[in-house]
Specification:
Strands 3-34-33-32 form a four-stranded antiparallel β-sheet. The chain has a four-stranded antiparallel β-sheet with strand order 4-5-6-7, with no helix packed on it. By secondary structure, it is an alpha+beta fold. A hairpin with a 2-residue loop joins strand 33 and strand 34. It contains 34 helices and 38 strands.
Amino acid sequence: MSPHSARDSSASAGTHGEGINPDSLQERLRRLNNANNEQNSTRIVTLGQRISEYESALTPAVPRQPLGFKVIKRAGGDGQPGSVQLTDFPNEILTHILSHLHPDSHASVALVSKRFYTLVTTPHAWRMAFQRFFPGYLALDTAGKSQNGVWDQDDSDRMRSDVRHFTRLTPRASWRSEYLLRTRLLRSLVRGKPGTSSGGIGSSSRSSQSGKKASAVLTYNTKLPSAVTHVHATFKPNGKKQPRVIHGASDVGIASASDPTCGKVEKWGLDDPFGFAQLDDAVPHILPYGIGEGPAAVPNVMDVSQPYGLLGGEGFPGGRVFYRATGEYRGKYLGQEPGLVEAHPDIPKIPELSEGICSVWIAKSSLVPSLTQSLVGILTGSSLGVVTAYALGYDPSGPRYGAGEISARWVLSPGVPIIALKVDDSYSQKRKTLNRVWAVALNALGEVYYLVQPPTAPVSKTKTDDSIRLAWHTGRSTYWHLVEATRRQARPDESGRNAVRGAYSPRSPSTSLGLTKDQMGAEAREIEKFLRYKPAHFRKVCYGWDMRRKLEVDFASDDEHGAGESVFIVDCGLVEGQTSAVKRFQRSMTSKAQLDDQSAGSPESTPEVASAPSIFGGSSIRSTSPNSSSSPLLKQVLTASGKLSPPTINSPVKPGLDDWRETTLHSKELANWQITATGLDASQLALITSFEDPLKDSTGFASSAPATPSGQAPTDIPGRRARFFGIGTNKGKILLWNAREPHTGDGLHPIRIIQTESPEISCLAISALYLVHGGSDGLVQAWDPLASTLDPIRTINSRSLNRMPRHLLTANHTLQSANFSAVGAIYLDPDPTVLHGIVAFGTFVRYWAYSSSNHATGRKRRQRHSDVHGRVTGRRHGSGVQGYIAAEAEELRKEQQHQAREQARLRSRFGVGLGDLTEEEAIRYAEMMSQEAFLVDEQRRASASDTGSAADFDTTSSSGSTVTPDPSVTGPSPLAASSSARNDTTDESDYELQIQAAIRLSLLEGVNDMGASPRASSSGEYDIPITVKERRGKRSSSSSPSSSHTPIVKRPESSADPAAAAGGSSTAIEDDDLEFALQLSLAEEESRKANLAALEGEDAFPSLGGSGLGKGKGRAT
């Protein structure tokens, strides 16, 4: 077979639509492989010709076809065995396809078949849909690794971006419920409808009675004399108690409370004339933050709590602690009571004149005071490294402490200020049993101290006991541990003395150390020695002095081995010579058995474990306490209830070392920025540990599964129990990390970087649903941390001008340099499903309460708004475009009806709209009509003026006779006779014109140029007899003008001439009547003139007379 024939056969086969002919293809391939082919041997072979022939042999020749469309029936159509159905795809492909559908379509797909129902309700489809809606792809741009200054990406980063780390919204969340609820809440936040539930604006009794329209945002003045810096609130009403917000200004130490639903500010805190002195006024010669040669000093500090009140501290030397309870209108100082400290050598003497308050904390709930037997409700840290606890609440089982009474005291780092304190407000009995960290302190050198057990209350306490001595002894019942990775580093010098002085620091001992009274006295003297050192000494012998560090603690982080707490130390980069950095220290426990095995294998570690603790520093080996995990009580609890024990702990935790792993949080340009704000997710589910998580319990999870079966495994928890930690910079950027990401050698990379429009981030608040930032320009915006959109979800507050009120500037001159428009504090509702929050800027606060539902209650949602995010909400009603067109047509029809009703109303009331004219046409028509009417009046006036010289021109000229006025004539006048005889032959319209002219002439003759009626000579000018009634007197004539001034006209009798009577007709009778009416009008006018002439001779002001019907003299006369 020749190549041409093979090509023709293949072409013909392609023409018939059956593709390549297998026989011809094999023949062509054999021809190419046959080396003895004579045709090919005689042909010249070029380079690469055989390869091109192989390629062209596999490609069918397609004949040229004319342009246009051609419908070809598919081989194996519907119903044929070779067709491919949607159900033929495997489950993996179908799940991927269904994950692209809108959530509203899943309900319809579930009704197709059991297989589709199972695929739709599986968590895999919803997980893929969640990852597609919340891409989180910004991690690809920021998760690169730094290698030789070049940032690149690798496959591991891409794989990591496919995992979504977040805090779920509900305790029993599945991928389906999480996806539906999160998308619905974000749409509600974008919509911004006011919430109608409890806690919404206008929901309180006092505001609901006013009848005002509900609003989603309310801004009001807190009446504070300075900018608000701290806010704490309770948005959910408790019984009859309405939502309440407490807001305070730290620089003056004043706070106030208000109801955010109506904006009413209470009197609490405003009636007290108390106020803190400013640092510049109290000690103007001391530089703040310990950078000078004097003692350490900071601006005044504050913490507020809605249940317990206000706590403030004066930051200058000699400062004290001020406390005002919620139910009290007057506060008090929590100072030391005078005691005989000299009589107790084991108690160090604190120089109060050089001590200031650098950090304070007050309980936000009753959990910590109740679990510590009301010993710890307030904590303060001083500039000398002293931590003091004060009591709050009442515990009937323990000793009675008054509110604000000193209960425990420790010296952690003598001479080094305690700059931050954090306490677990979700502390529970289970955490106490497992020796979880519940209190953390940070000093100016970056050292971190923590407590795992609360102090033990004394057995008995009386009023005669010295409270100071009792507080020191109570503090010895527990021990503050030091994170060894944060221990201070000595600054080397030539003599080598700093190596000893810079690395050593004493602190308060514990009774578990077994020290004697003499040893405790020696330690007290050593502490007093360090208390006399100034900050300049520590800056000289140690590295890392910074009093503007920030502290954040994740108490709920759990490694499922009894530990996992994370401490974040933030170096803001505000100190000269230091750069910004964020470090995480995560706790892990090592049991004593493991330590023994390690000591047997490595002899170098034996002395460290077996060495006795020093009386000046102690060691990090935890001591056995009555509440430790090895106590019989804990064994009994763990044995009795398997729910209380962690799932991964099979045996009680034995005392051992706490190992803290240090992890650096990286970012590409973090070293070039200054950190101005920090935030940690404070949602309800972010504050629970793994052994408190309901999804960790498979039994509980199976019993309370969602309404739609999801088949979700207990280990497949949406979000993987992550928690967001974020920082704000002076460049307007926000960096987010997963605070619970496992430790890696190269550090942690941010999962989201947000560039805001603010020049600087002044405040930051994070929730499980959204993130809210406040800028130095007053801009407040909400963002989605999972990057469903790169733009802000909603702008809560726009930029504001930095205008300081004049009365505030007059009262406090130190506010001249303050930024009054910067956002000072943000507080979000701990329940992420409730869109409530409050933000403070200046002395004002703004409270928002958005609706969490799809649409407002009590109102139908219009069809035109059914398209959300480009997807139709209800797919059963057909295409969304058709519905939109129908809605628009209906609106146009209603608008036309409204316009028609309005035009009809105006036409009926004002006469507009004649002949369906427009407004301009109607105005032009009115102008035209007015001009025509004006011209007609001008013509009538001109004709009247021409005939004004002859009064009877129209009537006498037609008759041709002269009329002689004779009052004695009783018959019809010649004028009437001549007029009636002539009108028989004239047109009726001409006669009417003459009558009108006569009336007009009579009126013109009766008015002179001055507008008054001229005097008539006599009544004999008229053809009819007129009888005027004589006046009886001055008073009677003026009392009844209607009777005296009305002339009495006698109608002339009928004519006696029979010829005239026989010749009269109906037309003549009508003419006589008209003529008589004219004469009557003229007679009345003449009578009026005569009366006016008679009155001129009388008094100018005659007395008023009665009508004869009333009382008085007029009736008597």
